[in-house]
Amino acid sequence: MESASQSYVAKPSFWKKLRGHAVGDDKPIGYLFILPAFIHLAVFTLIPILFSLYLSFHKWSILKPAKPFVGLKNYIKMAHDTDFWHAMVNTFYFVFGSVPTGIAVSLLVALVLNRKMKGVYWFRSFFFLPVVSSTVAIAMVWQWILQPEFGLFNYLLGKVGIEGPKWLMDPKWAMIAVIIVTVWKGIGYQMIIFLAGLQGIPEHLYEAARIDGANKWRIFWSITLPLLMPTVFFLTVTTIIGSFQAFTVIYMLTEGGPVGSTDVVVYHIYEQAFRVFNMGYASAQSWLLFSIIFVITIIQVKFMKKFNYEH
């Protein structure tokens, strides 16, 4: 009995000691806790990134085990690749078309759903539903909606006397259709972020503005929008990064067509890697895309810091 009692008393001291180690008395125990996450990050993120950098200086096909070193030839080849730069132009078209439109529409929806009205939580859930839905399933539904002959879009346009375009089959309209689908899918996420920003604005600022006789438009430009600028900046940076990496919607809707009108960089990289099997050249394109995204992000951060300093 006495030995059992002593062993029972010893347990709390052991857990207390372990807790002390975790708090900071012994750092290795803390590293042990984060080891599984670090192994996952290293195996599935860090090592592939470094391997892609290695491949960008080699010529390697999945079908051939040899990986001869070619130096900067992949990058030099890319500089003269008109198809790649056509995909880059399409990517910028997609970014400049989808990012401002998505942020503006999401802000408008957030302003409407930030009011106290009946069923507001149902409306918020409705707009957020596409965010948690499968992109593949959504793209398949939109293929039917945008079908030129019996699709819902053209049917509704026909009701008001407008002949709808061929959308995904027309090089002039295909990218616009992809932008519409992308904006529609991203509204819910951006709306939630904007709602968080709107609800963080102190109510007394609005009350003071109303007492001074400011109308709703003046309140928006003088109070709401300036105080939402950090939120706008966050969404702009993250959405631009995501837009440069657009792939799934384009793969499902158009596969880069028609006539290459929706061939963006990531889809172009996919074709080089898994259809042409030129992994080295695809890796070089990936690193150029990373460099462009990195530079654009740095410019945005510097601009935001300057904006905050001046205001």
From TrEMBL:
Source taxon at top rank: Bacteria
Locations listed in the record: Cell membrane
Domain ABC transmembrane type-1: 88-300
Membrane topology, as annotated: Multi-pass membrane protein
Transmembrane segments: 29-55, 92-113, 125-145, 173-198, 219-244, 284-303
Family matches, as Pfam families: BPD_transp_1
InterPro entries hit by this protein: ABC_transporter_permease (IPR051393), MetI-like (IPR000515), MetI-like_sf (IPR035906)
Gene3D superfamilies listed in its UniProt record: MetI-like
Keyword entries, A-Z: Cell membrane, Membrane, Transmembrane, Transmembrane helix, Transport
Coiled-coil regions listed: none
Family per similarity comment: Belongs to the binding-protein-dependent transport system permease family.
Protein name in UniProt: Sugar ABC transporter permease
Species whose genome carries this gene: Paenibacillus lignilyticus
